[in-house]
Design goal:
By secondary structure, the protein is an alpha/beta fold. The protein is built from 14 helices and 18 strands. Helix 6 (about 140-150) links the parallel strand 7 (about 130) and strand 8. It is globular.
Length: about 375
Protein backbone atom coordinates (compact mmCIF):
# COMPACT_ATOMS: atom_id res chain seq x y z
CA UNK A 1 0.00 0.00 0.00
CA UNK A 2 1.41 3.35 -1.03
CA UNK A 3 2.22 5.75 1.75
CA UNK A 4 2.12 3.11 4.47
CA UNK A 5 3.68 4.45 7.60
CA UNK A 6 6.96 3.09 8.82
CA UNK A 7 5.42 1.73 12.01
CA UNK A 8 3.38 -0.83 10.02
CA UNK A 9 6.36 -2.71 8.50
CA UNK A 10 4.19 -5.38 6.96
CA UNK A 11 3.90 -7.28 10.22
CA UNK A 12 0.73 -9.06 9.18
CA UNK A 13 2.51 -10.50 6.16
CA UNK A 14 5.55 -11.36 8.25
CA UNK A 15 3.43 -13.24 10.76
CA UNK A 16 1.76 -15.26 8.00
CA UNK A 17 5.12 -16.14 6.51
CA UNK A 18 6.39 -17.13 9.93
CA UNK A 19 3.46 -19.47 10.44
CA UNK A 20 3.95 -20.93 6.97
CA UNK A 21 7.65 -21.55 7.51
CA UNK A 22 10.43 -19.52 9.05
CA UNK A 23 13.21 -20.42 6.62
CA UNK A 24 12.99 -17.00 4.95
CA UNK A 25 13.78 -15.32 8.26
CA UNK A 26 17.13 -17.05 8.59
CA UNK A 27 18.14 -15.79 5.15
CA UNK A 28 18.12 -12.23 6.51
CA UNK A 29 21.50 -10.82 7.52
CA UNK A 30 22.44 -10.64 11.20
CA UNK A 31 22.77 -7.31 12.93
CA UNK A 32 26.13 -5.62 12.58
CA UNK A 33 27.86 -2.66 14.10
CA UNK A 34 28.38 0.40 11.95
CA UNK A 35 31.89 1.59 11.18
CA UNK A 36 33.43 4.74 12.57
CA UNK A 37 33.14 7.18 9.70
CA UNK A 38 35.41 10.01 8.71
CA UNK A 39 33.91 13.50 8.82
CA UNK A 40 32.57 15.02 5.63
CA UNK A 41 35.36 17.05 4.03
CA UNK A 42 35.32 20.84 4.45
CA UNK A 43 35.06 21.20 0.69
CA UNK A 44 31.97 18.99 0.52
CA UNK A 45 30.30 20.80 3.41
CA UNK A 46 31.09 24.18 1.86
CA UNK A 47 29.43 23.05 -1.38
CA UNK A 48 26.32 21.86 0.50
CA UNK A 49 26.05 25.10 2.46
CA UNK A 50 26.48 27.17 -0.71
CA UNK A 51 23.75 25.18 -2.47
CA UNK A 52 21.36 25.80 0.43
CA UNK A 53 21.73 29.59 0.63
CA UNK A 54 18.34 31.36 0.80
CA UNK A 55 17.15 31.78 -2.79
CA UNK A 56 14.93 34.85 -2.29
CA UNK A 57 14.90 36.75 0.97
CA UNK A 58 17.44 38.02 3.50
CA UNK A 59 15.18 36.60 6.21
CA UNK A 60 13.85 33.51 4.46
CA UNK A 61 10.41 31.96 4.76
CA UNK A 62 10.26 28.24 5.60
CA UNK A 63 7.02 26.34 5.04
CA UNK A 64 6.56 22.92 6.66
CA UNK A 65 3.70 21.09 4.97
CA UNK A 66 1.53 18.54 6.75
CA UNK A 67 -1.28 16.24 5.69
CA UNK A 68 -4.13 16.54 8.20
CA UNK A 69 -4.83 12.82 8.20
CA UNK A 70 -1.31 11.58 8.80
CA UNK A 71 2.16 13.16 8.97
CA UNK A 72 5.25 11.74 10.69
CA UNK A 73 5.68 13.44 14.07
CA UNK A 74 9.42 14.09 14.18
CA UNK A 75 9.63 14.99 10.48
CA UNK A 76 7.08 17.75 11.13
CA UNK A 77 8.01 18.96 14.61
CA UNK A 78 11.80 18.70 14.65
CA UNK A 79 12.52 21.08 11.74
CA UNK A 80 9.95 23.48 13.19
CA UNK A 81 11.43 23.44 16.69
CA UNK A 82 15.07 23.54 15.56
CA UNK A 83 14.64 26.33 13.00
CA UNK A 84 12.54 28.39 15.41
CA UNK A 85 15.37 28.11 17.98
CA UNK A 86 17.70 29.87 15.55
CA UNK A 87 15.31 32.79 14.90
CA UNK A 88 16.87 33.43 11.49
CA UNK A 89 13.79 32.77 9.35
CA UNK A 90 10.00 32.89 9.36
CA UNK A 91 8.81 29.34 10.06
CA UNK A 92 5.21 28.35 9.30
CA UNK A 93 3.70 24.95 10.12
CA UNK A 94 1.07 24.29 7.47
CA UNK A 95 -1.77 21.88 6.74
CA UNK A 96 -3.67 21.20 3.57
CA UNK A 97 -6.95 22.27 5.14
CA UNK A 98 -8.41 23.72 8.33
CA UNK A 99 -8.24 21.55 11.44
CA UNK A 100 -5.60 19.65 13.40
CA UNK A 101 -2.79 17.59 11.91
CA UNK A 102 -2.79 13.99 13.16
CA UNK A 103 0.85 13.02 13.60
CA UNK A 104 2.04 9.43 13.73
CA UNK A 105 2.88 7.37 15.64
CA UNK A 106 1.80 9.92 18.30
CA UNK A 107 0.74 13.56 18.89
CA UNK A 108 -1.79 15.95 17.35
CA UNK A 109 -1.06 19.61 16.63
CA UNK A 110 -2.87 22.65 15.29
CA UNK A 111 -1.24 24.04 12.14
CA UNK A 112 -0.50 27.74 11.98
CA UNK A 113 -2.04 28.19 8.54
CA UNK A 114 -3.46 26.34 5.58
CA UNK A 115 -1.63 26.21 2.27
CA UNK A 116 -4.33 28.47 0.84
CA UNK A 117 -3.70 31.11 3.52
CA UNK A 118 0.05 30.77 2.99
CA UNK A 119 -0.35 31.38 -0.74
CA UNK A 120 -2.30 34.54 -0.02
CA UNK A 121 0.36 35.87 2.37
CA UNK A 122 3.35 34.74 0.28
CA UNK A 123 2.21 34.74 -3.36
CA UNK A 124 5.83 34.43 -4.53
CA UNK A 125 6.24 31.26 -2.48
CA UNK A 126 8.53 30.01 0.28
CA UNK A 127 12.31 30.04 0.28
CA UNK A 128 12.32 26.51 1.67
CA UNK A 129 9.55 23.91 1.65
CA UNK A 130 10.01 21.04 4.10
CA UNK A 131 8.11 17.87 3.18
CA UNK A 132 7.75 15.22 5.95
CA UNK A 133 6.76 11.61 5.49
CA UNK A 134 3.00 11.25 5.10
CA UNK A 135 0.64 8.32 5.37
CA UNK A 136 -0.35 8.92 1.78
CA UNK A 137 2.57 9.86 -0.43
CA UNK A 138 0.61 10.34 -3.66
CA UNK A 139 -2.14 12.79 -2.68
CA UNK A 140 -2.61 14.84 -5.89
CA UNK A 141 -3.46 18.03 -3.98
CA UNK A 142 -0.26 17.78 -1.94
CA UNK A 143 1.83 17.00 -5.01
CA UNK A 144 0.41 19.94 -6.98
CA UNK A 145 1.21 22.34 -4.15
CA UNK A 146 4.77 21.04 -3.84
CA UNK A 147 5.29 21.43 -7.58
CA UNK A 148 3.86 24.95 -7.42
CA UNK A 149 6.28 25.94 -4.65
CA UNK A 150 9.20 24.46 -6.57
CA UNK A 151 8.06 26.41 -9.63
CA UNK A 152 8.22 29.61 -7.56
CA UNK A 153 11.84 28.91 -6.68
CA UNK A 154 11.57 27.23 -3.27
CA UNK A 155 14.26 24.78 -2.21
CA UNK A 156 12.27 21.59 -1.59
CA UNK A 157 13.43 19.45 1.35
CA UNK A 158 12.17 15.87 1.61
CA UNK A 159 12.75 14.63 5.18
CA UNK A 160 13.03 10.86 5.65
CA UNK A 161 10.27 9.13 3.64
CA UNK A 162 9.12 12.60 2.65
CA UNK A 163 11.57 11.96 -0.19
CA UNK A 164 8.94 9.61 -1.62
CA UNK A 165 6.42 12.44 -1.66
CA UNK A 166 8.93 14.69 -3.40
CA UNK A 167 9.69 11.90 -5.89
CA UNK A 168 5.99 11.45 -6.63
CA UNK A 169 5.80 15.19 -7.31
CA UNK A 170 8.28 14.55 -10.13
CA UNK A 171 11.11 16.57 -8.58
CA UNK A 172 13.73 13.83 -8.18
CA UNK A 173 13.96 12.31 -11.66
CA UNK A 174 17.57 12.50 -12.82
CA UNK A 175 18.74 13.80 -9.45
CA UNK A 176 20.89 12.37 -6.67
CA UNK A 177 18.83 11.50 -3.58
CA UNK A 178 18.43 9.38 -0.48
CA UNK A 179 15.62 8.38 1.89
CA UNK A 180 14.88 6.25 4.95
CA UNK A 181 16.65 2.88 4.63
CA UNK A 182 13.37 0.96 4.64
CA UNK A 183 12.08 2.77 1.54
CA UNK A 184 15.19 2.93 -0.63
CA UNK A 185 14.38 -0.08 -2.81
CA UNK A 186 10.74 0.93 -3.18
CA UNK A 187 11.61 4.47 -4.22
CA UNK A 188 14.24 3.32 -6.70
CA UNK A 189 11.82 0.81 -8.22
CA UNK A 190 9.05 3.38 -8.62
CA UNK A 191 11.43 6.12 -9.81
CA UNK A 192 14.28 4.44 -11.70
CA UNK A 193 15.74 7.76 -12.86
CA UNK A 194 16.69 8.68 -9.28
CA UNK A 195 20.40 8.26 -8.53
CA UNK A 196 20.51 6.89 -4.99
CA UNK A 197 23.45 8.04 -2.84
CA UNK A 198 24.37 5.79 0.13
CA UNK A 199 26.41 6.72 3.20
CA UNK A 200 25.21 10.29 3.51
CA UNK A 201 22.52 11.75 5.75
CA UNK A 202 21.40 14.41 3.31
CA UNK A 203 21.83 15.02 -0.40
CA UNK A 204 21.43 18.33 -2.26
CA UNK A 205 20.88 18.41 -6.01
CA UNK A 206 19.59 21.34 -8.05
CA UNK A 207 17.25 22.86 -5.52
CA UNK A 208 16.00 19.60 -3.99
CA UNK A 209 17.22 18.10 -0.70
CA UNK A 210 16.54 14.61 0.65
CA UNK A 211 17.61 12.94 3.88
CA UNK A 212 17.89 9.52 5.45
CA UNK A 213 15.68 8.34 8.30
CA UNK A 214 13.78 10.16 10.98
CA UNK A 215 16.66 11.35 13.16
CA UNK A 216 18.39 12.94 10.14
CA UNK A 217 16.05 15.92 10.36
CA UNK A 218 18.26 17.16 13.22
CA UNK A 219 21.54 17.53 11.26
CA UNK A 220 19.58 18.57 8.19
CA UNK A 221 17.94 21.43 10.09
CA UNK A 222 21.33 22.51 11.41
CA UNK A 223 22.91 22.65 7.96
CA UNK A 224 19.96 24.78 6.82
CA UNK A 225 20.66 27.15 9.72
CA UNK A 226 24.32 27.28 8.70
CA UNK A 227 23.30 28.16 5.15
CA UNK A 228 20.93 30.90 6.37
CA UNK A 229 23.02 32.45 9.14
CA UNK A 230 26.50 30.95 9.34
CA UNK A 231 28.29 28.23 11.24
CA UNK A 232 28.45 30.11 14.54
CA UNK A 233 24.64 30.30 14.73
CA UNK A 234 24.34 26.61 13.77
CA UNK A 235 26.84 25.72 16.49
CA UNK A 236 24.84 27.68 19.05
CA UNK A 237 21.68 25.75 18.19
CA UNK A 238 23.55 22.44 18.05
CA UNK A 239 24.76 22.95 21.61
CA UNK A 240 21.20 23.67 22.73
CA UNK A 241 20.13 20.39 21.09
CA UNK A 242 23.03 18.41 22.55
CA UNK A 243 24.47 17.62 19.13
CA UNK A 244 28.19 17.41 18.38
CA UNK A 245 28.16 17.65 14.59
CA UNK A 246 25.77 17.95 11.70
CA UNK A 247 27.88 16.88 8.74
CA UNK A 248 26.67 14.32 6.22
CA UNK A 249 28.52 11.23 7.49
CA UNK A 250 26.33 8.13 7.66
CA UNK A 251 26.86 4.37 7.52
CA UNK A 252 24.01 3.04 5.39
CA UNK A 253 25.13 -0.57 5.89
CA UNK A 254 24.23 -0.35 9.59
CA UNK A 255 20.53 0.13 8.77
CA UNK A 256 18.75 -2.74 7.05
CA UNK A 257 16.15 -5.42 7.61
CA UNK A 258 17.98 -7.93 9.83
CA UNK A 259 17.00 -11.07 11.71
CA UNK A 260 16.96 -9.36 15.13
CA UNK A 261 14.84 -6.55 13.72
CA UNK A 262 12.33 -8.96 12.18
CA UNK A 263 12.16 -11.19 15.27
CA UNK A 264 11.56 -8.21 17.55
CA UNK A 265 8.82 -6.85 15.31
CA UNK A 266 7.06 -10.21 15.22
CA UNK A 267 7.43 -10.95 18.93
CA UNK A 268 6.31 -7.53 20.12
CA UNK A 269 3.40 -7.27 17.70
CA UNK A 270 2.03 -10.72 18.43
CA UNK A 271 2.30 -10.38 22.22
CA UNK A 272 -0.76 -8.15 22.18
CA UNK A 273 -1.67 -8.92 25.79
CA UNK A 274 1.45 -7.01 26.90
CA UNK A 275 0.69 -3.86 24.91
CA UNK A 276 0.16 -0.73 27.00
CA UNK A 277 -0.70 2.93 26.77
CA UNK A 278 1.71 5.31 28.47
CA UNK A 279 0.62 8.71 29.77
CA UNK A 280 3.02 11.59 29.15
CA UNK A 281 2.46 14.92 30.88
CA UNK A 282 1.72 17.74 28.43
CA UNK A 283 2.83 21.06 29.88
CA UNK A 284 2.88 24.59 28.43
CA UNK A 285 6.24 25.49 26.93
CA UNK A 286 7.12 21.89 26.07
CA UNK A 287 10.09 21.57 23.73
CA UNK A 288 8.74 20.39 20.37
CA UNK A 289 11.96 18.59 19.44
CA UNK A 290 12.32 16.60 22.66
CA UNK A 291 8.59 15.88 22.72
CA UNK A 292 8.60 14.49 19.19
CA UNK A 293 11.66 12.32 19.75
CA UNK A 294 10.44 10.81 23.03
CA UNK A 295 6.82 10.25 21.97
CA UNK A 296 7.96 8.83 18.64
CA UNK A 297 10.46 6.46 20.24
CA UNK A 298 8.09 5.05 22.87
CA UNK A 299 5.33 4.64 20.28
CA UNK A 300 7.55 2.55 17.98
CA UNK A 301 8.22 -0.31 20.39
CA UNK A 302 5.22 -2.34 19.15
CA UNK A 303 4.57 -2.70 22.88
CA UNK A 304 3.44 0.80 23.82
CA UNK A 305 1.72 3.93 22.60
CA UNK A 306 2.16 7.38 24.10
CA UNK A 307 -0.88 9.48 24.99
CA UNK A 308 -0.54 13.14 25.96
CA UNK A 309 -2.17 13.89 29.30
CA UNK A 310 -3.12 17.52 29.95
CA UNK A 311 -4.49 19.30 32.99
CA UNK A 312 -7.59 19.82 30.86
CA UNK A 313 -8.85 18.88 27.43
CA UNK A 314 -7.64 20.99 24.54
CA UNK A 315 -4.24 22.27 23.48
CA UNK A 316 -1.24 23.88 25.15
CA UNK A 317 1.34 26.19 23.57
CA UNK A 318 4.75 24.69 22.99
CA UNK A 319 8.12 26.39 23.47
CA UNK A 320 7.91 27.96 20.03
CA UNK A 321 4.21 28.70 19.82
CA UNK A 322 2.72 25.55 18.32
CA UNK A 323 -0.56 24.24 19.77
CA UNK A 324 -0.23 20.61 20.89
CA UNK A 325 -3.40 18.73 21.86
CA UNK A 326 -3.90 16.56 24.91
CA UNK A 327 -5.25 13.09 24.17
CA UNK A 328 -6.81 12.88 27.63
CA UNK A 329 -7.54 15.28 30.46
CA UNK A 330 -5.86 14.25 33.69
CA UNK A 331 -9.23 13.73 35.37
CA UNK A 332 -10.12 11.14 32.72
CA UNK A 333 -6.85 9.20 32.96
CA UNK A 334 -6.34 6.54 35.60
CA UNK A 335 -2.89 5.40 34.54
CA UNK A 336 0.60 6.55 35.43
CA UNK A 337 1.75 9.90 34.02
CA UNK A 338 5.43 10.66 33.52
CA UNK A 339 7.21 13.84 32.49
CA UNK A 340 10.42 14.66 30.70
CA UNK A 341 13.02 16.18 33.04
CA UNK A 342 13.18 19.96 32.77
CA UNK A 343 16.25 21.45 31.12
CA UNK A 344 17.20 18.26 29.29
CA UNK A 345 18.52 18.58 25.73
CA UNK A 346 16.51 16.77 23.05
CA UNK A 347 19.41 14.41 22.38
CA UNK A 348 19.64 13.52 26.06
CA UNK A 349 15.86 13.03 26.14
CA UNK A 350 16.06 10.56 23.25
CA UNK A 351 18.96 8.69 24.82
CA UNK A 352 17.03 8.49 28.10
CA UNK A 353 13.97 7.20 26.22
CA UNK A 354 16.01 4.46 24.57
CA UNK A 355 17.47 3.45 27.94
CA UNK A 356 13.97 3.41 29.40
CA UNK A 357 12.72 1.24 26.53
CA UNK A 358 15.63 -1.14 27.05
CA UNK A 359 14.88 -1.38 30.76
CA UNK A 360 11.15 -1.94 30.25
CA UNK A 361 11.08 -4.14 27.14
CA UNK A 362 14.68 -5.28 26.63
CA UNK A 363 17.66 -4.14 24.59
CA UNK A 364 16.37 -5.79 21.43
CA UNK A 365 13.34 -3.49 21.48
CA UNK A 366 15.49 -0.40 22.08
CA UNK A 367 17.65 -1.42 19.10
CA UNK A 368 14.49 -2.00 17.07
CA UNK A 369 13.32 1.55 17.82
CA UNK A 370 16.72 3.06 17.04
CA UNK A 371 16.73 1.22 13.72
CA UNK A 372 13.35 2.71 12.82
CA UNK A 373 14.63 6.16 13.75
CA UNK A 374 17.80 5.46 11.73
CA UNK A 375 19.64 6.64 14.81
CA UNK A 376 23.14 5.44 15.62
CA UNK A 377 24.07 7.87 18.36
CA UNK A 378 27.16 8.71 16.31
CA UNK A 379 27.34 12.20 14.87
CA UNK A 380 23.63 13.00 14.81
CA UNK A 381 23.10 12.22 18.47
CA UNK A 382 26.31 12.43 20.44
CA UNK A 383 25.97 14.79 23.33
CA UNK A 384 28.16 17.83 23.03
CA UNK A 385 31.23 17.47 25.21
Amino acid sequence: MRGRRLAAYGIGAIALLLLAGAGWLFSLPPAQRGETLSPTSPEEMAAVVAALKPPKRTRPVVAIIGANDGTEATDYLMPYGILRRADVAEIVALAMREGPVALYPALTVEPQATVEAFDQEYPDGADYLIVPAMRRDDDPTVLRWIRAQAGKGAIVVGVCAGAKVVANAGLLDGKRATTHWYYVDEMRKEHPLIRYVPDTRYVVDKGVVTSTGISASMPLSLVLIEAMAGREKAQEVAEDLGVRNWDARHDSSAFRFTRPFAWTAIRNRLAFWTHERLGMKLVPGVDEVALALVADAWSRTYRSRVLMIGDAAGAVRSRNGLSVYADRAAKDWDGTVWSMPAGQTPTAALEQALRGISGRYGKATADFVAMQLEYSGQGEGEAAQ
